[in-house]
Amino acid sequence: MTNNTEQEEEIMLEIGDTLVSGDVLEKKFICDLSHCKGACCIEGDSGAPLSEKERDLLDELLPSIKKYITKEGIKAIDKNGAWFIDTEGDTVTMLIGTAQCAFTVFDGDVAKCGIEKAWLDKAIDFQKPISCHLYPIRENEYRSFTAVNYDTWDICKGAIKLGKKEDVPAYVFLKEPLIRKHGQEWYDQLTEAAKIYASQNNSWK
User: Fold this and answer.
1) End-to-end CA distance of the chain
2) Quick one: residue 81, left, alpha or beta (phi over 0 = left, psi -120 to 50 = alpha)?
3) What pLDDT is recorded for position 9?
4) What is the rounded distance in angstroms from the CA atom of residue 114 to the CA atom of residue 67?
5) Euclidean distance between CA atoms 32 and 30, whole angstroms
6) pLDDT at 198 exceeding the cut of 50
7) Alpha-carbon dihedral of residues 160, 17, 46, 42, nearest 10 degrees?
8) Residue ranges of the domains in the chain?
9) The pLDDT of residue 205
10) DSSP character string of 58-122
11) Distance in angstroms (rounded) separating the CA atoms of residues 34 and 108
């Protein structure tokens, strides 16, 4: 890939019923909590996107999850529910105020996920919303396919820097959530596609 023009044609790879952006294979990324302090949990203009199944799971598991989140989070959830429909029509996790996810907990000055904390403690069998687990990959469901894209957010500058330093592509760092979402066979196909993509785009190597 080169940057000789202001606008390049986006490369999409078809794997099963998904279209995967070349950026997912090309961009380097390793989440660096020491740099971002978990800012994605407390910044933004909406909550974490939820599938219909995840929405129902949150409602079901809420009594167990509440034991792991803050008083402010519990207050917001008790008042407004565990999720809401945002201005774009998406189902997302409830917020404290206008940005912080109601399920956020803090480990010192690092924001983490209270849902995942409950999961790690084996209190529930749901790890966390797949949209959080996959970030910076964002997926959009369409009638006949799912678009798998790489999202850029300035709070992740440290992750991009670390990814470049260690030479780890986003799809490799996100192996676990990608398999969780799409399965091992799909991920194996993605890995093979990445090898072919690399051989055809020498500037990426």
Assistant:
1) 10
2) left
3) 57
4) 9
5) 6
6) yes
7) -40
8) 14-29+136-205, 44-126
9) 47
10) HHHHHHHHGGGS-HHHHHHHHHH-SEEE-TTS-EEE-EETTTEETTEEEETTEEEEHHHHHHHTT
11) 11
